[in-house]
Every structure is written in structure tokens, then in C-alpha cells.
Amino acid sequence: MLDRLAPRPGARKKHRRPRGPGCGFGKTAGRGTKGQGKRSPGRETPLYFEGGQMPLVRRIPKRGFRPMNRIEAEVVNVGVLATFGEGATVDPAALAARGLIPGSGAPVKLLAEGDAPARLTVKVHRASAAARQKIEAAGGTVEILA
Predict the structure, then answer these.
(1) Residue 123, SS3 per DSSP
(2) Which 8-state DSSP code applies to residue 47?
(3) How far is CA 10 from the centre of its chain?
(4) What sign has the CA pseudo-torsion 19, 24, 28, 29?
(5) Residue among 112, 117, 110, 114 at smallest CA distance from 140
(6) Strand runs labelled E in 22-77
(7) Each residue's pLDDT tens digit, 5-63
(8) Rounded distance, CA 83 to CA 74, Å?
């Protein structure tokens, strides 16, 4: 079985070597005339090189800093939880089912914008101090998931 494995027909093309002026690849071998592209290594400069002009990467102003180890959280405001009604249990699965978060598996953070419904049990990964205070003032509880 393994001895019969081969690339699909046409997947591996043979390199065309120029053989004189009649083949269409003679003289400059299809590389055009003069310049960087016709030289032996082909491209010695970085991909962002623009022929000496100030590259776009350096022309555009840089803004802010985004740490590589940052974990993006799905944000849910307290006011949005009114759709669950009084005494409900809210967790990431319930929020995703209602379409309030994408359900991508990212941690969920509760923020304090809006009014909290009464006696709500909220299970989230993070909660702001003000959001926790609003939920508890309305007779509910906030549980932090690991």
C-alpha cells in the first residue's frame, strides 16, 4: 500500500531550465531585466521593504500596548440580567443560550451597568465590586467560577 503512494498528477512541476532563445525562457530565464528580482537569492530584503520609501509599518502611528498573555472576557452588564426574571440562576451556558454572549468558552465578567433583578443567583468567572454589590443589595448571590 505505502509503496504505491505518489503525489497527485500535476502537483509536482519540474523546474523549467532555459535552453536557448527559442524556448521562451532564454537570456534572462523569465526573470525580466535588471534589479533585485533577477539576482541569485531572489529577495534579500524584508517583505515590508518598499524600495527605500518609508515603509507603511513605520509611517502609521503606534497606539497602546496589548499584552500577549491577556485573556479576553465576555462582558455582561447587570441590567441585561432582567430578562431572566426573579429568582433565576444565571451561568455562562444560560447566557449563551439567550444569545447574550457568543458562547466561545471565554471567561464571563459581570459589570454594574443597569439595575439588578431580585433574588438572582449569578455564576460567572469575574465580577466587578459594584456589580456584586448591586446583586447582593437586590437579595441575590454572586458565585465566582474557577
Answers:
(1) strand
(2) T
(3) 35
(4) negative
(5) 117
(6) 74-77
(7) 999 999 999 888 888 888 888 888 888 888 777 877 777 788 888 989 999 999 999 99
(8) 18
